[in-house]
Amino acid sequence: MAATKTVKNRTSRNDTPNTPDVSESKIARMKVDELRRALKNRGVKGTESLKKPDLVNKLIKAEARSSKSGRKNPTSRNDTPNTPEISESKIARMKASELRTRLARRGVKGTDDMKKPELVKKFAKAELKSAKSGKSGSSSAKTGRKNPTSRNDTPNTPEISESKIGRMKVSELRTRLARQGIGDTAGLKKPELVKKLVKSLSGKGGKAGKAETAGKTSGGKRTGKKTSPSLKYSQEITSTSDRPERAGRSLVTTDHEVIRQWAKSRRAVPATVAGTQHDGHLGVLRFDFPGYSGDRLVEVSWAEWFEAFDKRRLNFIYQEQRSGGERSNFFQLENPDE
Question: Which residue range is the domain that position 202 belongs to?
């Protein structure tokens, strides 16, 4: 009789010897609320009225099914053995919010009402598609060349990095386009700005494509028929890594970032003199320094300021320090053609 009772009690030994990873004894030691939670996590409903032996049986069956089916559970192991770079177990450990965020980046919508198992499946599937198309982790796997920020769309111009351009902020893109002589970008969104800048840098932008060479030379000074002596004797600064040869040295640049850093370090903002605007364009360009009480200045955006600066082929002549080492606010804007 004791042997017969032992056979009927599914909690006394391993009743599924072909699935050694399912431990009936461990399941039998679980509390009732733990059993219900475990079954709920596996999608089993209607367990509120079941007693412990029934709960144990149900969980054992569920575990055995999961172990045998293997591939039916995307969180149990690697369901894509041909793509070892995709880890389903790692995906399964992600939080639901993280899964939704990652799916949104890949253009997958309608995930708000999905539960974690569905999110895991969708993300694993998206990763698999991405890996097969050769663009792992890229949301543009299906669109290819439609997204100019995903890869280098101009292989004949390797010096132009579309991925780098794609990471730029909207304000920076507008500034770069203004430097290229391209205006009217206020109403454009980032993808359009990216396309315009890529096109202009690759020489396909007509007049805009020529603006860079005509307007500036690698951040250095612009020259013309009426280049002044002060410009000739100024040290040329082409990037933020350049340093003055000595304190009090006269410097010249056309590099936007050099000018921006110089102004910001002095808490100055780009401005124009009120009443000097004409035909919708900025008039006299200035910087508004804290405590300045001279001309009536109107603050403008950097994009507007640099657009006017480049269109007029101006040079920024300035000082970092006076001869004695004190910070200098001296600057002047000069057109070498006038």
Answer: 162-213
Q: Using the 8-state DSSP alphabet, how is residue 2 labeled?
A: H
Helix (H, G, I), strand (E, B) or coil at 216: coil
Report how far residue 41's alpha carbon sits from residue 45's, in angstroms, rounded to the nearest whole number. 9
pTM: 0.39
Question: Are 6 and 33 found together in one domain?
Answer: yes
Cα separation, 115 vs 153, whole angstroms:
38
Task: Count other Cβ atoms within 10 Å, centred on residue 245.
Answer: 9
E strand or H helix at 253, and its extent?
strand 251-253
Tokens for 163? 């991925």
- Tokens 């605007």, located at residue: 277
Number of domains in the chain: 4
Nearest C-alpha neighbor of 125 from the set 98, 93, 102, 97: 102
Give the tens place of pLDDT for each residue, 134-158: 544 444 434 444 444 444 545 555 5
